[in-house]
Amino acid sequence: MPADTPGTPAIPPPPPEHWFADVLASDGGVVRLRPITPDDAGSLERFHTGLSDRTRYLRYFGPYPRMTAKDLYRTTHVDYRDRVGLVIELGDDIIAVGRYEYLAERAGARSAEVAFVVADQHQGRGLGSILLEHLAGAAAENAIETFVAEVLAENNAMVTVFRDAGYQVQRSRDGSVLHLEFAIDPTEALLSVRDSRERASEARSVGNLLAPRSVAVIGATPLATRVGGAVLANLLSGGFQGPVFPVNRNRTAVRGVRAYPTVRDIPDEVDLAVIAVPAAEIGSVLDDCMAKGVKGLVVLTAGFSETGPHGHAAERELVDAVRSHGMRVVGPSALGIANTDPAVSLNATLASVLPGRGRIGFFCQSGPLGAAILGEAAARQLGLSTFVSAGNRADVSGNDLLQYWDSDPGTDVVLLYLETFGNPRKFSRIARRVARTKPIVAVSSGRNVVRVEGEADLDRSLVRNLFAQAGIIQVDSITELFDCAMLLAYQPLPAGPRLAVIGNSAALNWLAVDAGRSEGLTVGEPIQLGPQAGPVDFLTAVSAAVTDRAVDAVIVVYSPPVPNAVADFAEAIRSGAQSDPDTPVLTTFVADQGMSNLLATRGPGGMLERGSIPSYGDPERAARALARVRRYADWRTRPASPIARPAGVDTVRARELVAELMDAETGHWLSDLEAAELLGCYGIRVVEFREVRDADAAVAAAEELGYPVAAKATGEIWRNRPDLTGVRLDLWRSDAVRRGFTELSEISGNPVHIQRMATKGVGCGFRVQDDPSFGSVISFGLSGTIIDLLGDRVYRALPLTEAESAELIDAPRAAPLLSGHVRGRDIGKPVDRAALAELAQRISALCDDLPEVRELQCEPIMAAPEGAAVLYSRVRIGPEPSRFDIGPRRMA
């Protein structure tokens, strides 16, 4: 084909790397999307030939049995700007194609015609919607504003794709053809549709793993001491409801079950393959699984990313191969997966003990720790619905499991043990939604959280703040994880902070009271029953407490003074609690830990049900668990708030400015004047200043700005010094300005800022930083050396909602200083908190709109009754990080 075919580049540019994506189809299977290239000509021709006559007619408005050489050339030779083509692959085959082409002759908004077609056997999997999302994303990058499409009126499937995508469609009819036109701007409605589809496909994907119809164990052996033997034994003894196929080249049967040399030799379909062979053999096993059409893998084998760079590369190759063939993988180095639903009864784990049926979903990264965790859960009689130990988390992650549990009717509570976060922005988004209806309790090692010099214990406070923002109950240990889980799984949420303590041990009663008060609960005098109290006394006291409208929760302490039968006391506590099942009751029952059989309420199959009363080893643990759950219950009652989008924002100019100042290689700190200009685009006004280099210019600047002024040395070492060496304040005359300039220029050797004096107020500041675990994080705190040493800063993930902006201002321990009223005495007028909250919103919007902003500081800020004045700002810009969560759907 001649190179001068109109609109076709003779040598196309390299395809954009960020357009390559693995995406989940609506049935949970993985497909690979990428830009089309000239090398696709042969595959594209085979794809087209394989389409049915009906599909070709609907796409091309006629028979069109074969693509012409001209069309084939034009389709595969694109510029990735005005003409874009995308393909979706499964294995080596193209299964869907989409393209758009800029309509240069159309007046008005930049428009492009869009079209796509999906192979017959893959229609109904949502691939058209995926193509449309990614084409729209590419078009937005290339300043295309509107898509148009010509669709046969009888092509209901295509019309439905456009309509269901969330676009505002304008339709005109011309005989048998519909003309569709719609803006591609990612509106809230469009993003909502994207998130809904993502949730459904990820939930289906995990559901395929947790409810397989058949399982193959590759590397199965009869020895329970070997990995392949242990998982096979658990599958068989657990009563899995489908067929189990051992795979062993050297045996015809394993544990009395017929074995096969390879997965390919199994005559039936295989949904899930559990791999327990050495890492060196994974390649051949993977080829067999791909040839067999296995839907998912659980890789128990170690020896991948945990071993170093070589293992990490092998792990990425494994995931790449698995996804390219439509599969998902749990692991490597996983403990396994389990589903206690009697209709499935899947125990594909290495754990020697698996808890019974319950309504708690549990995700854990660590394999060795996972076994210990399951053992403790079983010891406490904490029932699970499903369990996934993801090991290295190369593919399936906590985000995937959250999507699954959100829609799983068999799961009421979610437990997470996290070491890393795959996609922090997505994690926060999903967790906020899930936590509205299902409690999430998480323990995180925090090992990848940034430490900032001078900020005390940042790991713990940052994780705690950001988890609380998303409604997650953050705990510090596995013990506390289960302490909260017992309460959440079997008792109602407390309606308020008022706690009643009942017991027959004065010492333990007061321990509970003191612990409750230290955790922020409202606790009165304990109800002392005394060591001679009998079951009737407990029944009467507990019944009275739970029906008291001034009580929101009850802790019951029973410690027998001498060994005696305790069943009657347990029955009394249970009966008393049933007087009002809406009031949560916790116990320290003979120092038992977990769910005592005497306090349990059981349903069909002996499964623990709500109303069971958890017991804690000591009353302090009970109070801590109750306080954490109470804070979560309070968060859940707050109405959802929209993302803050303040008025008066010039996003276009801000993006132009960043593009002008950007260093594509490394990024850099902006000058003070550049930073002030960028912030000004978002309505963030730095108190007016001039940068001067001689005394005459300093005086001229002071007279222009108006006295009084401040003179400030420039250079990082002079900023925010507690000794104020680098500043001269309240300069009222020209001679003072000259003297100040001379002194500061001599000590710094840099230009000097002459700045209008701001109204006196309380010093505070905002900072935005990149965190490898959570993404962009904003912090707020009052200014001062002592405040910094104490680490009194609070953190929130961006973007902020309107409610979070206000909460951020009130969260530091020193925040009462902003109210002008501390410990019963007035210390001044309250500052304008609303101005600080608005400033937080504007910073949030700036960092959300401009991902190139890698770091930002507005400090000091003078907060006064009349408003908030920013005295200084710093901004660092750099190459844009991965922002997959705000574009078209894709797997991390």
Describe this structure in words.
There is one protein chain. With 892 residues, the chain is of the alpha/beta class. An eight-stranded mixed β-sheet has the order 1-2-3-4-5-6-8-7, with helices on both faces. Strand 38 (853-864) and strand 39 (867-870) form a beta hairpin. Helix 14 crosses helix 18. The longest helix has 23 residues, at 188-210. The protein is flat and about 100 Å long.
Provide key terms for this protein.
892 residues; alpha/beta; Aminopeptidase; Rossmann fold; D-amino Acid Aminotransferase, Chain A, domain 1; eight-stranded mixed beta sheet; seven-stranded mixed beta sheet; 26 helices; 40 strands; flat
CATH superfamily of one domain: ATP-grasp fold, B domain
Shape: flat
Report how far the terminal alpha carbons are from each other: 39 Å
Structural class: alpha/beta
CATH architecture of one domain: 2-Layer Sandwich
